[in-house]
Amino acid sequence: MQSIENNRSFTQLIEFEIEPHQQQGLVSALSAQTERLAQHHSGFLSASVQASDDGRRVLNYLQWQSREAGEAAFRSFESGEQDFWQLIRTHQAKGVTFGSFQVLRSIERSPDNASQCSLVG
């Protein structure tokens, strides 16, 4: 039997600080890279690429079945054909913040339009 900790999903948040004229290009590049990660790495659950209204930030949210799956995908992202560091240079990111989180609770809308909160693990 797996431990509760191994059953928790894993989330990576990567926030980019950029100039507004770079935002759309970074959103496009991250979207393409995220699609490749989803297609080629087991354990992928979901992702989103989000842009701030002021044009100065982009947030990449990636959720994985486990920490190991997320870390393996990120290692690939670091050294892939368009590696992560090249993506940062190309879009002239002024700052990049990384966050890693285990999902402990999840709130979702059910098919009958009710909210439900579940404890993960």
From TrEMBL:
Gene Ontology MF annotations: monooxygenase activity
Residue intervals passing through the bilayer: none
SUPFAM superfamilies linked to this entry: Dimeric alpha+beta barrel (SSF54909)
Ranges for domain ABM: 10-76
Superkingdom: Bacteria
One Pfam family hit: ABM
Keywords: Monooxygenase, Oxidoreductase
Protein name, entry field: Antibiotic biosynthesis monooxygenase
Species this protein is from: Pseudomonas kielensis
